[in-house]
Amino acid sequence: MLPVLTILGDAISLFGAYIGVNLSSVTSLHFSFTQVFQSLSFSDILPAITKTFFFGLAVGIIGCYKGFNSSKGTQGVGVSANLAVVLSSVLIFIIDLLAVQFTNLLGLN
After folding, report:
1. Are 92 and 83 in contact, with CB atoms under 8 Å apart?
2. Would 66 disulfide with which of 48, 80, 85, 98, CB 3.0-4.6 Å?
3. Does residue 65 sit in the same domain as residue 32?
4. What is the mean pLDDT of each run of 10 residues along the chain (109 residues)?
5. pTM
């Protein structure tokens, strides 16, 4: 679901950008989105969406592992949830670092 949520978040942010621009000057929705999509290229979108698959996989695997191996009681579940969030955040940072290096190596950026 993370790639779908990323696409939805990007669409909402583009509409928010249109509203922000429309507050200071009057522009049409069609013109605004035409200008945005003319400036975007495939190499801007593909790495961003591809990374979300790996992010979702990492969060899912870590969350399941920590949840399955949590100790009994509410305190054990809380500790496992905290560790899962911290470990997922660090792993997302590392995956993003590797993905940026890989896309730079391929010349996509």
Report:
1. no
2. 80
3. no
4. 90 90 84 87 82 93 93 89 95 93 81
5. 0.76
